[in-house]
């Protein structure tokens, strides 16, 4: 009886795996797991919120072939740009709510973009290192051409911003780091990531997750390469982290406070009983911290 029960359980488990596999293939074929609203939906939201401000719809520029969205005030002197960098996986859609925030709109021009491989930015094509990602961001910043730049990132987006501040400190005037993975010693083992590259598995994996797998696999090594460069970061830095974050341990904040010796200021907000996705659950708090950094 026991053996028969085990056999039934194994058959059920196998059937579930097959069903998930088939569902994954169907989802990929019809794009059901794209982590992004349509351009039309995002544009409708932006137009409803912009008032007399100019909308940079869903635009593309040739350097790096990335797509971006933004709201700005064309006649603002010594313009301040707040540039949002999404995590992995993700898209510019992660920050639509921030672009629509009237409080932020009153303080700065707001921009976000699809990092290479996501959304409209050469979808499915990226396997960039942290340095290459930061250079992509640098090209975007130069394209915007603002007088001062405040960067807001979530998860891997923070790592990219930090590398930019090391290599091009002249264009970075502030960092707001939400759930930032920056300590290589805290990066988990990724022995299983090569398994996702097998063709039989790839066909059932969403494109965004395949890109995420490619860029997270070398993250530990990329962060180790950053270790001697942290003293180049001279702008103010704010860490916002959840003490129950299971994906990026809160101890990354302690690491940041140790290595940011030349930052003009370092502050932290550790949220009790909060996990990795506070970008969406604590939007008002994060907006307040962005405005505070702009004012300072």
Q: In words, what does this structure look like?
A:
There is one protein chain. It is globular, with a radius of gyration of 20 Å. Strands 1-2-4-3-5-6-7-8 form an eight-stranded mixed β-sheet, sandwiched between helices. The termini are far apart. 42% of the residues lie in helices and 18% in strands. The longest helix is centred in the N-terminal third of the chain and has 29 residues, at 2-30. With 296 residues, the protein is α/β, with parallel strands linked by helices. It has helices spanning 2-30, 39-50, 96-99, 102-105, 130-144, 156-167, 199-202, 207-216, 219-226, 251-259, 278-281, 283-295; strands at residues 54-61, 66-72, 80-85, 109-113, 148-154, 174-178, 236-242, 265-271.
What's the order of the H and E elements?
A: HHEEEHHEHEHEHHHEHEHH
**Major sheet characteristics:** 8 strands, mixed
Side by side, the strands of the main sheet go 1-2-4-3-5-6-7-8
Radius of gyration: 20 Å
Q: Beta-strand level of the residues, as a percent range?
A: 15-25%
* Average pLDDT level: 86
Write a concise synopsis of the structure shown.
This protein is of the alpha/beta class and 296 residues long.
Topology, please?
Layout: H1 2-30, H2 39-50, E1 54-61, E2 66-72, E3 80-85, H3 96-99, H4 102-105, E4 109-113, H5 130-144, E5 148-154, H6 156-167, E6 174-178, H7 199-202, H8 207-216, H9 219-226, E7 236-242, H10 251-259, E8 265-271, H11 278-281, H12 283-295
Parallel strand pairs: 3-4, 3-5, 5-6, 6-7, 7-8
Antiparallel strand pairs: 1-2, 2-4
């Amino acid at each position: 009886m026991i053996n028969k029960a085990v056999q039934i359980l194994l058959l059920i488990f196998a059937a579930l795996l097959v069903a998930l596999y088939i569902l994954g293939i169907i989802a990929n074929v019809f794009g059901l797991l794209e982590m992004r609203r349509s351009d039309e939906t995002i544009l409708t939201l932006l137009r409803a919120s912009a008032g007399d401000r100019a909308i940079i719809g869903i635009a593309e520029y040739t350097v790096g072939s990335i797509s971006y969205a933004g709201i700005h005030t064309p006649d603002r002197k010594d313009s301040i740009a707040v540039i949002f960098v999404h995590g992995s996986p993700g898209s510019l859609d992660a920050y639509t709510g921030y672009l629509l925030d009237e409080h932020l709109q009153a303080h700065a021009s707001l921009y976000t973009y699809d990092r290479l491989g996501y959304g409209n930015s050469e979808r499915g094509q990226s396997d960039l290192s942290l340095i290459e990602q930061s250079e992509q961001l640098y090209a975007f910043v130069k394209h915007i051409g603002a007088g001062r730049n405040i960067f807001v990132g979530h998860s891997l987006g923070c790592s990219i911003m930090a590398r930019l501040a090391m290599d091009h400190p002249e264009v970075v005037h502030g960092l707001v780091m939400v759930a930032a993975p920056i300590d290589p010693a805290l990066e988990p083992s990724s022995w299983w990531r090569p398994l996702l590259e097998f063709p039989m598995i790839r066909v059932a994996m969403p494109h965004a997750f395949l890109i995420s797998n490619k860029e997270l696999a070398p993250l530990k090594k990329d962060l180790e390469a950053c270790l001697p460069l942290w003293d180049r970061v001279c702008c103010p830095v704010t860490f916002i982290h959840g003490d129950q974050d299971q994906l990026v341990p809160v101890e990354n904040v302690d690491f940041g406070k140790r290595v940011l010796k030349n930052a003009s200021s370092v502050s932290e907000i550790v949220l009790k009983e909060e996990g990795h996705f506070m970008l969406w659950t604590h939007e008002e708090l994060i907006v307040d911290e962005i405005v505070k950094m702009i004012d300072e």
